[in-house]
Amino acid sequence: MPARQSHEPSHDSVATDAAVTTATATAIHDSGATMSATQNRAQPSSSPKPDSLRSVHAGAIWTGLPAREQHLLLWLLGADIVTAELASLLVYRQLRTAQRRLARLVELGLLRGFWSASAHRPRGRYAYVLTRATRIDIERLAWPHGRPDRPPDLPSSAPIHELATLDVFAAFLRQGDPLLGEGIFTWVPERICGHVFGGFLRPDGLAGIRVGDRAIALFVERDLGTERGEVLAEKIRRYRSVFARTPDLPVNVGFVVDSERRARAVHELVSHRAGPASQITFLTAIAQQLHLDPLHATWTDGRVYRPTRDLAAISTEGSWPVITPGCLSDGEAIAALDDRGLTMLPELLLYVR
In terms of DSSP H, where are the helices of 116-228? Predict the structure, then answer.
């Protein structure tokens, strides 16, 4: 359960709430004036009342939101889901601040909060997603001249799976060290990966990892042990099919698993189903170890064991800034966390559809 929230507002949150309140009141007044000028009054329905916070769209109060919350909402267009813990890492710094501000965004009708759990993860976690109306509004803000042509949105993975994948992202984010030049410099989430690879290849995430001047491309597959062998085999086949076009390109596909037993199952599928000659490497890592120290965590192809920092590099000219906690305080950082992050791995642009 989320920790108990503090009810003592800070000076900046008081100012922010005042700005949002003013913008909200203006939006409600404008909508009320429009309705009063309409000949046919609205009929009773189950939708929110026109004078409620939940009837106000994101565009109406956007300018009243602090920049960091605008950035968080924009990031959620691609990332889909966030917890208070991750939001504190991305922007708020303090867990209680994250809980209070996310609750406020729910109150404003911009986010929807819910408990995410499954039969395999019965404890679950509380998470937040954009409401449908908010997603439409923020897409209009992000693309004022119209959304770029691309395939329709693919169904998202189950929330519990998306959160497990974001745990991998969070682990790398915590360990980023700009002085050493080590950490992730881009993270492309599942929804965006599905678009840019045309739906044929749909990684759970794509991490660009910098170790000095080496840039490592790691496709992340977060395996919770629920997919049958034929599903995993099809994933492996698709990766091999796609990257057969450039057999000399060193690409890593990392299955993050919960146990050694599951890791052995993945390696057996890889070895029993040979594919075209290429430098694509299928690896496994244990989630618990990866979360503790993602750069030192051990990956294996079933024979050789190596830490993350020693994985095959796609380039030896890496100089992109490492992403660190608080990154969404800077609006420019969003470009490293959506489809634009692929430009930081230009060797993969050949596969974008």
Answer: 132-142, 159-175, 190-196
